[in-house]
Fold this sequence. Notes:
The protein contains 7 helices and 9 strands. By secondary structure, the chain is of the alpha+beta class. A 9-stranded antiparallel β-sheet has the order 1-2-3-4-9-7-6-5-8. A hairpin with an 8-residue loop joins strand 2 (130-136) and strand 3 (145-151).
Amino acid sequence: MFHRLIVWAVATAIAAPAAAQQWPDSGGQWPADPPPAQKSKPRPKAKPAPRDDVEELTPGQIQRAQELDTRPGSPKEMPQAVKRPSKRAQARQIDCRGAFARDSSHIRLAQIFGPNNVTFTEVDGPENSKIMASVLFPRDPRRRLEMLWNNTTSRSGTQVIVINGKSAWSAPRGIKLGTQLAAIEKLNGRPFKITGFGADGSTAADWQEGAMLSLQGGCKVGMRFVADPRAPEDARSRLAGQKELLSNDPNVRAIRPTVAEILIGY
């Protein structure tokens, strides 16, 4: 969707310049299984199953990934967060560590949330395109969460986490869909700049060196705002044609904007 492109461009300009060149390539393939440690009798080759637009990890794939991470001489051990969903994870809070750290992956999501609760599938991209992403709880709108990767071949390296639709996930500092713009300004500690309101709303453009500029865990956040549909038409008309606004502008406050989409990136 077009508004996704706008939010993506603004969020990456504010938050993650290194990841802002383009959306990730969606043509990656799942890496091959690791070679066996010792020779064994050859087994007849099974006919490969056709690939689908939606992939789910099998327990065997997770186990092999764990064995690779924990064998002697591995560059890093399996992260502690990968034991089982904690109460914090179940509370649907993104805190830029563990499952949502910079070095996360599709496999880590499956280890934490369960292989049946994460798929690799198409999501909306810029200009009505489709791109590949890992989706948590794809059949539950309240728990749905999209994660895009810097490396789509290995499905690793968190690029952007997307909270949209009816998702009840919270971004860092407790921000949720539906949070009022005035509350975001309070969290930021000062007024911030937003783009002018168009058909798809407005986006945070400059945090003005406020607290939202840098969050614990090294992640950055961008968001899209929409006006209250019950806001007076004359209040909307006073904002028509303006390219940039401040969050404390009385005309902005008059239309009571709330958060409609959140992007968290590195």
